[in-house]
Amino acid sequence: MASKDVVKSIAEQLGQHLSDECASLVSADLEFRLREVVQDAAKFMRHSKRQKMITDDINHAFRLRNTEPIFGFSTSHIPGMGPEDTAFRTVNVGGTEAYYVPERVVALSDILNAPLPKCPADIKLTPHWLAIEGVQPAIPQNPSVAVQAQAQAATSGSTASASSASVMVTATDAPVAVKQLVRHTLSKELQLYYENATKGILGDDDAYRTQVLAGLAEDPGLHQLVPYLAHFIQENVTTNMKTPRLLLRLVEATRALLRNPHIFLASYLHQIVAALLSCVVAKRLYDSAAGPDVIEEHWSVRDRAAEVIAGICKQFSIRYKDIQPRVTTTLVEALLNEKLPLTTHYGAIVGLTQLGPRTIDLFLIANLSTYHRLYLTLAAATPDAARRVFDALWNAVAIYLKNPAPTAEPDPERTTQRLAYFREIFGDRMDTL
User: Fold this and answer.
1) φ, ψ for residue 124 (rounded to 5)?
2) Distance spanning both ends of the chain, measured CA to CA
3) What are the DSSP calls for 36-90, one per residue?
């Protein structure tokens, strides 16, 4: 493709003298580079649906290899200077064929009067929501069949009256279509699944409820049911605040949904977290005439709801950085409110404990002296709740001492004071650590 004589000739034109050995090496490398460029140019030619290679293909190949393109040959936009007019010619020089491009004299007026080439269109990407949780947003990019028909009827001057909610008239009397909200409809299969799932959650059949919870945690086809399930949980928590057994089942259903990796719950956290916080810090989760078993269950409701809230904070804290601070603020306010009963204080303590040693250190241990004085004023009235609260406080302190939160500058004096204060409150329990 490129003999050593050609290389030596080019070198002589540049004022260099190459030996035969050096010219052979340069010739081999030149042939390799030319083959690469031609192969890349052929790819551009094929992707352009052409069977004839043009100079633009060569230039694209050069740009692909971060090489400056050859200017002056891409003149297809000039009349009489297309690819067929710039073909290579051959000439016999000393018995060897040489290739050259014939130079033509082109009038400057022809170039100036030639039409300008079209400007390439800029690449633009306009993202929009096709559907959000199965609901099509009412935006111009998502036309509705019914609204389009009404807009066309109004534009053509049809006598059929269009709804005022779907067609508006501007100051220039031009009809403007306003997209209506698309009703979220469920298939019969999903409706049947929803009915059976809700019955299983609230029903008394433990085996069937276990199957329902397993389906909620693993089924990949629950996307359209998520808003309905979130609303179902929130509504039933509100209406069954005095029935801890049902609340416990609703908390477990929420836990199952959070375990499902195929659904998106972030849009409904405001409903789910509000319902769970109600289970944690509500004043009372049972009727005054309830038996001992029901009263015992309401402590379990607070414990499990606190676990689920901690799991939500851990799962969504990267995307929503304010979710754990807002939950923590709610729990601390409930803990230090002297007007709320010890049952609420118990829920706040277990909720802060579930959020980890650092939260225990910053919000529970830091307010322990203040709360201990409040606790002493309320303990005599409800001894059973006081015992539960005391055990919850001890559990939090034990977790803190076994897994201390890392601090930038450890303070031995403060640690000693805290240990002494813990021993003053919990006495011999400190010896069990």
Assistant:
1) -130, 135
2) 85
3) HHHHHHHHHHHHTT-SS--HHHHHHHHHHTT-PPPTT---TTSTT-SGGGS--EE
pLDDT at 152: 60
Q: How far apart are CA 18 and CA 8, in angstroms?
A: 6
In whole angstroms, give the CA distance from residue 377 to residue 371.
10
- φ, ψ for residue 130, nearest 5 deg: -75, -40
The set of residues, in sequence order, having a beta carbon less than 8 Å from that of 259 and lying 6+ positions away, is 217
DSSP state of 192: H
> How far is 187 from 185, CA to CA, in rounded Å?
7
303 neighbors 362 (Cβ within 8 angstroms): no
Q: Which pLDDT tens digit goes with each residue over 19-39?
A: 888 888 888 888 898 899 999
Using CA of residue 164, residue 170, residue 176, residue 178, what is the dihedral sign? Answer: negative
DSSP reduced 3-state for 265: coil
- Amino acid letter at 323? I
pTM, full prediction:
0.58
Question: Angle at CA 280, nearest 5°, toward 275 and 283?
Answer: 100
Q: How far is CA 25 from the centre of its chain?
A: 56
Characterize the bridge pairing of strands 96-100 and 167-169. unpaired
The amino acid at residue 342 is L
Q: Nearest-5° angle of CA 68, CA 74, CA 77? A: 145
Query: Following CA atoms 369, 373, 374, 379 in sequence, which dihedral angle do they give, to the nearest 10 degrees?
Result: 120
Q: pLDDT of 63-77, one tens digit each?
A: 888 888 776 665 554
Q: Which backbone phi and psi does 386 adopt, to 5 degrees?
A: -65, -40
Q: Give per-residue pLDDT as tens, 309-345.
A: 999 999 998 888 899 999 999 999 999 999 999 999 9
